[in-house]
Structures are given as C-alpha cells and as structure tokens.
Amino acid sequence: xAIIVTGADQDLDMFDLLAYGSxxxxxxxxxxxxxxxxxxxxxxxxxxxxxxxxxxFTYSSGSNTPSSGTITGIVYEVGHSMVFTASDASLSxxxxxxxxxxxxxxxxSGKSCRAMTxxxxxxxxxxx
Length: 128
Known about the structure:
By secondary structure, this protein is an alpha+beta fold.
C-alpha cells in the first residue's frame, strides 16, 4: 500500500499539481545534489524546489541521473517545506524518465497510481 503524507504548511491541490506542474521545468533548472544507489536528489534554486527519490538505482557510465531501477519513495519540497511524500511505491525508473522527458504529469500520475496501488489503498496524513 502506498502512503502519501502532506505537509502542514502546504496546500496540496493534486488537480493543479497534475494539470499545471512541470517535471521538465523542475529537472531543466535543477542541480543534482545526491546520486547514490539508493537516493537521487535534485534542487532547483530558481523555483526553490527539491525532489528526492529513493529506491534502488543504477546509473549509466558518466551520468548522474538514474537509468534503471525501482522508485520506492518520493519527497517533494518547496521552500524547504515538505509538500508531500510518497512511500511504499514501486515505479520503474525507465517509466518515470519517460514521463519526465514527455513532461506528462497526468500520465505519470496514472502510472504511479497503478504502480503504487494508490487507486485501491491510500493513507493521507497531514502533519501539524
């Protein structure tokens, strides 16, 4: 079961995030902070966004972006405040990369929902 936790200081409007959010913009202006076998973290100073992806990753030679593996967790922050986390996921890196390149948030959400079984079992918690 996937678990999504939202931050107390953030209004999480999934419609706006999916309809107007841009993974391509986040990645285009981002700097890779961490790239290990279990963590990939990017920071976009222009938009003050951080995206940390956890799981099991492999990297192509000379690349600091995962090329294969499985994503099991995501933390998205704006202004160093957590907007949401997702855990207990299972999404292939190759699918995630395809959606980033296509800048297809709606497609990713559908794939993520199926991959994380969000459509059948979700726990949403707001931290206060």
